[in-house]
Design goal:
- With 459 residues, the chain is of the alpha/beta class.
- It is built from 27 helices and eight strands.
- It has helices at 4-8, 11-20, 31-37, 53-64, 98-103, 128-133, 144-147, 150-162, 168-176, 178-181, 186-196, 202-211, 215-218, 220-223, 227-248, 259-268, 272-280, 289-297, 306-315, 320-338, 345-355, 358-372, 377-395, 398-402, 410-417, 423-437, 444-458, and strands at residues 26-29, 45-49, 68-72, 77-81, 87-92, 113-115, 136-137, 165-166.
- Strands 3-4-5-2-1-6 form a six-stranded mixed sheet. Strands 7-8 form a two-stranded parallel sheet.
- Helix 8 packs across helix 12 and helix 15 crosses helix 16 (259-268).
- The longest helix is centred in the middle third of the chain and has 22 residues, at 227-248.
- It is elongated and about 85 Å long.
């Protein structure tokens, strides 16, 4: 009969871990066990060892010929990087026994373990398995969240993404930790928030954040929104989630729940794969483009928030590139609407010349905001047509519309027309590119003649 451990951990990997541990006890702990009982997939595995966790990490990485690194030197914790972005995290016990170590963890459903030498026995000192069966999120101790206030955000993330009830005493702990949460490292608050953006239950998470009084420590601007503005914010985020599922996720067209979504699926369905790849791409700083888009959506119900979203992103220690991307999405979303009256190849070219890659997310935000306003069907069809034309330009006609092949370099243009380096050269090159988009220029000779005539008109 297959043991629980064998269903979670390949036997050859289990044997290798035991051989590299040199006789010390090793336990599989936490998330993999939890997710197994919730019928969820958990590719990453966490282990606890009696001692020398970093040494075991390095030994495993050498044996598997994969990378590894130290997670926490002081706490003796390391990570082995497997193929397919899977990881093995190994940490030393924080208490004399595995039972005592588990009681120091955040929630009972994470306080589960199996010793590799005794795969038939589940170690469950706090009744975490029963809590999982009851779909209940319960803190391990009366001071679990006080000891690490970031666990308050984790409670929201796990509850919303896994559809769990937060036990009343744990809710009280979360509320009591609200002030202390603001003193947690900004990077930790950022990463818990980004984790909420991974789930389709983003709106549920945000409602919980507000109800449990955690927003001031993470998104103070949202905590200050009026009830009307907050409802509109959540409506935009909700529609963005629906839209991303239809336009960039695993979506079945026949299951579209309403006419606007069916129309969007029909008209934009062919971009699903490329949009999915685009949103899953990593921005410099380590977060996905979709994470940045969700952050911007939370600021989209109030006008003139371009600078605010940048400032908040930096305060949460998103990278400069990520914060700048957020600002660019916010800035260019209204410019999509400006194209509704005259959506041409040249309009698409000018839009992406200014917005570049973040312009794709701005299009999706434009649709989400429009969808949240419940427009008449003919208006919705117009907006989808604008979005489709822009997405066609970016994903299917990039070299023809977005960035035509350059016929002249700046130095060549300067030499031919006896120009000094300066913004004029850039303006001429941009004008040549526009003529290429419109089909008026196809050769270097034509480009040079156009620039020469343009100079005459300037003078």
């Amino acid at each position: 009969m297959t043991t629980l451990l064998e269903r979670l951990l390949p036997s050859d990997l289990a044997a290798l871990i035991q051989s590299q541990s040199h006789g010390q006890r090793v336990w599989l702990v936490g998330g993999a066990l939890r997710d197994h009982f919730l019928d969820l997939k958990q590719p990453d595995l966490d282990f606890a060892v009696e001692q020398q966790a970093i040494s075991l990490t390095r030994g495993l990485a050498d044996a598997l010929q994969v990378p590894c690194y130290v997670l926490d030197q002081q706490r003796d914790a390391g990570r082995v990087m497997l193929s397919g972005h899977r990881t093995l995290d190994i940490a030393r016990l924080r208490a004399p026994t595995i039972e005592a170590d588990l009681k120091l963890r955040d929630f009972t459903m994470n306080a589960l373990a199996i010793e590799l030498k005794h795969p038939e026995r589940l170690i469950d000192p706090l009744g975490g398995l029963q809590d999982l069966k009851d779909r209940l999120l319960r803190a391990c101790a009366p001071d679990s969240i006080e000891r690490d206030p970031i666990r308050s955000m984790r409670a929201v993330r796990l509850s919303s993404s896994m559809r769990l009830r937060i036990e009343k005493g744990t809710q009280a702990q979360v509320r009591q930790s609200a002030a202390a949460l603001s003193r947690c490292a900004a990077e930790r608050r950022r990463d818990e928030l980004s984790g909420m953006f991974e789930s389709e239950w983003v709106v549920t998470a945000m409602r919980l954040m507000r109800r449990l009084e955690l927003l001031p420590a993470v998104l103070p601007e949202q905590a200050e929104l009026s009830p009307k503005e907050w409802d509109q914010t959540l409506r935009i985020v909700d529609k963005l989630t629906d839209l991303l599922g239809a336009a960039a996720g695993d979506f079945e067209p026949e299951k579209a729940g309403n006419l606007p979504m069916a129309e969007l699926t029909l008209r934009l369905g062919r971009f699903r794969a490329v949009l999915g790849e685009h949103l899953a791409s990593t921005v410099r700083g380590g977060h996905r483009a979709s994470h940045i888009l969700y952050l911007v959506a939370l600021f989209s119900a109030v006008e003139d928030m371009e600078g605010t979203v940048y400032t908040r992103a930096r305060a949460l220690r998103f990278s400069e590139a990520e914060a700048a991307r957020a600002r660019s999405i916010m800035r260019h979303r209204p410019r999509v609407a400006e194209l509704e009256g005259d959506m041409t190849d040249l309009g698409a070219h000018r839009y992406f010349r200014e917005s570049e890659s973040p312009g794709v997310e701005a299009i999706l935000l434009y649709l989400a905001i429009s969808f949240a306003q419940s427009p008449p069907q003919e208006i919705w069809e117009l907006k989808i047509s604008v979005a489709r034309k822009l997405l066609e330009a970016w994903f299917e006609s990039y070299e023809r519309i977005v960035d035509p092949p350059r016929l002249l370099r700046g130095d060549e243009l300067a030499a031919a027309l006896d120009l000094r380096p300066g913004p004029l050269i850039g303006e001429l090159l941009a004008a040549i590119a526009e003529q290429q988009v419109e089909g008026s220029i196809e050769s270097e000779k034509e480009a040079l003649e156009f620039a020469r005539n343009r100079l005459i008109t300037f003078s």
